[in-house]
Amino acid sequence: MGHFDAIPPREPSPRRRRPALPAWSRPDGVMPVSLPLGRFLVRTPWLVVFADGLRVLPTGFEFALHVRRDLRPRDVARGEAVDWQPPFVQEHDSEDQLRFGVLFPDGRRAVAQQGWSVEWRTPEGPRPPVIAPQDGSGSWDHWDQSFWVWGLPAGGPITVFYSWAEEGVPETRFELDGDALRAAAAETLVFWPEPEPEPEQDAEPEQD
C-alpha cells in the first residue's frame, strides 16, 4: 500500500458557484489592450510622480502612479527625519496626500477613495466613474500604486485631475484620449463572461 493510499480520503466539499462581482469591479477573464502612457505629473529636485501602464478593459481602464522622493535634502533642511506615510489617500480625502480624480464629459466625476462613498450610489444603482485603488507598495522614498477606473464615456475625452498641497503641487489636469480608450475597449479579448448574480431563493413557508 502506498503512502497516500493509507490516508483515508476526506469527504469532498460541496462545489460552490463563483459569486458575481459588483458591476464596478475589474473583470478577470479578459486580456486588456495596452495603450502608451508615460507622463510626468510632478518633477522637482526632490519629488517625482509619473504615470504609466495604461491598460484598457471592456468596462474601464487601469494604470499606475509612481512616487519617487529624495528625502536627504529635506532631512537636512528640516533638521529631522521626514514623517513618512503612504502618499495616496488611504481612507479620507486629505490635502496632505496625493489626490487623484477623473471627470467625464457629461460632468460625472470621481475621486480616489472618495469614489467608494455615497457619491456614486443612485436609486438606480451604482454609476460610473468609480476609482478603485489596486495593488500598492513602497517605502520611505518610493511608492507604486495602481488604480482601476470603472466606466468609459460614450464620447469625448477623460480629464484626469491631481494635486498634492503638502508638496506644493496645485490642482493640475490632463486628458486621456477617449476615442483611443473606446477603440481599445472594443478590441479586448474576453475569455469568458462574468457570472450572473444567483437568483434569490424563496423563503420556505413557516410551519404552523
* Alpha plus pi helix count: 2
Give the total of beta strands. 14
Q: Indicate the CATH class of the domain at 31-72 and 97-190.
A: Mainly Beta
Helix content: under 10%
Share in β-strands: 35-45%
Q: Write the H/E string, N to C.
A: EEEEEHEEEEEEEEHE
**CATH architecture classification of the domain at 31-72 and 97-190:** Sandwich
The profile of the biggest β sheet is:
6 strands, antiparallel
Distance between the termini: 56 Å
Which word captures the global form?
globular
The Rg value, from CA coordinates, equals 23 Å
User: Class by helix and strand content?
Assistant: mainly beta
Write the CATH fold name of the domain at 31-72 and 97-190.
Immunoglobulin-like
Oligomer: single chain
Unreliable sequence segments: 114-119, 197-208
Mean pLDDT over all positions: 80
